[in-house]
Amino acid sequence: MEFVNLARSGALVAEMVEAQLPAARRSRPGLASVVVGGNDTSRAAFDIGQLARALDLAMRGLRAEGAVLLTACLPDPGRALGLPRPLAAPDGPPPTFADGTWWLATRGTRWVFDRCRDLLPDQVRQAALESGHHLTGTAHLLDARARAATRGALTATRGAPARALSAGSAA
Known about the structure:
The chain is mainly alpha-helical and 171 residues long. It has a two-stranded parallel sheet. Mean pLDDT is 78; it is low at 160-171. Helix content is 57%, strand content 5%. The longest helix has 19 residues, at 97-115.
């Protein structure tokens, strides 16, 4: 069996559709791993409908080549990175101080340096928006909007039905 890795750190879903998916289909894989979208979710231009359509396209295309698909749910990046609550909005315990220190020493400094220009402005804007909603008691409106957008994106694909999201699930 030949192993082909088409992943690129920092890639967005558009790159996956335009470059990685055609290359993957040409290799006619027996097994394909599809893990994409995390970089897109932290951008101001994030569109969950576009992401869902891209994932649907990728998974259908790979299945059409006869591939068995391996997918994964990634951890909440806010929790994994130990970001302040307005940036992360975690619903579980944050990482320990030792976890955060280890991440910063081994990967974090480089990650922060790389993201200062492409990610930081959007994260600051989002933190300000969420902080304003928390202060005014309207944070639930953001959650409801995210759930509705997620349901719409899932409904628009032939994938998981909209009922798969419970009222309490995060988008």
